[in-house]
Amino acid sequence: EDSSHKYTMVTCTAPVNIAVIKYWGKRDEDLILPVNSSLSVTLHQDQLKTTTTVACCRDFVEDRLWLNGKEEDINQPRLQSCLREIRRLARKRRSDKDSTVDVSGLSYKVHICSNNNFPTAAGLASSAAGYACLVYTLARLFGVEGELSCVARQGSGSACRSMYGGFVQWKMGEREDGKDSLADQVEPETHWPELRVLVLVVSAERKPVGSTSGMQTSVETSSLLKYRADSVVPGRMDEMTSAIRRKDFAAFAELTMKDSNQFHATCLDTYPPIFYLNDVSRRVINLVHRYNRHYGETRVAYTFDAGPNAVIYTLQDHVSEFVQVVCHFFPMESNRGKFLQGLPVASTT
Ligand code: 2P0
């Protein structure tokens, strides 16, 4: 039998995470070190996710990558960082363990195939799930275990948070080498089973200003961003952690909305300004506040990332009513019966 054609293949999935305390701004562009800590909720595995298959084979002549079926440039620096880091950890582990172990497989080239079940680059955290999945899958293929959020972070900042389920914080860290800029779980996915996430797809188009260049301009030009990072986020991280631990929805929701609003305010304070929200986004914001005011309590929260799509946090009991309200105020044909694997998705364009 010709053994040269043998290949090893691993497939993994990683879910999207939606930040409730936003990451915006880096203090180190290469290592991807943030100017503030952030906190997010990782969605359930079978909702918005990336699926990645990595194969390695002695016959492969170069590393290659396909994203949603289309071949992409493998020489992107962040992709190279992740590949290099995982291979380095794999070598280290094998040489620590048993120097006689065959390490030839480590020099094999890999073919990576990655698919999202949601629109890429529409502000739906596709790079977070993508890099988390890539790093995790490569680690499985090469037999690497342990702390990997540090590697995922070097692919995309928000990716480090998708390495864990449930409620996850990314601690900004203090070190220059980034070794303490890691994600860790605040509470597991089982902690707050009534919590629900709704994604209102306002637009599935690519965003005009990418997160990486957007936050770079914000760091350079926005004094509000500096104020936010130094004086607002540290307190909010503590308050948010406490609200989550207590399962205090009103406190969680209010902090989430305020932090989203401050993030978009820093975008507006950036020069030239960055606009991620559109008229539909703003109508959703008003609708949420009117809905909460109607009940005299905070039942629903919105949050927006680097795009116009609204992410809604609410509790199980209020999902169907709020979906009805959204469908009433956004009466589009495409809204009807459009559910993404149990996750209600209201498409408004
Ligand atoms: C977040 N966002 O905390 C924030 C809120 C967008 C708005 O993390 O340059 O794609 O790859 O580190 O992680 C988007 O930024 O940026 C992001 P890079 P990333 O989810």
UniProtKB/TrEMBL annotation:
One of its GO terms (cellular component) is cytosol. It catalyses: (R)-5-diphosphomevalonate + ATP = isopentenyl diphosphate + ADP + phosphate + CO2. It comes from the Eukaryota. The keyword ATP-binding applies. Keywords: ATP-binding, Cholesterol biosynthesis, Cholesterol metabolism, Lipid biosynthesis, Lipid metabolism, Lyase, Nucleotide-binding, Steroid biosynthesis, Steroid metabolism, Sterol biosynthesis, Sterol metabolism. Pathway: Steroid biosynthesis; cholesterol biosynthesis. Residues 14-183 form the Diphosphomevalonate decarboxylase-like N-terminal domain. GO terms for molecular function: ATP binding; diphosphomevalonate decarboxylase activity. NCBIfam families: mevDPdecarb. Belongs to the diphosphomevalonate decarboxylase family. Catalyzes the ATP dependent decarboxylation of (R)-5-diphosphomevalonate to form isopentenyl diphosphate (IPP). Functions in the mevalonate (MVA) pathway leading to isopentenyl diphosphate (IPP), a key precursor for the biosynthesis of isoprenoids and sterol synthesis. This is Diphosphomevalonate decarboxylase. It comes from Clupea harengus (Atlantic herring). The gene is mvda.
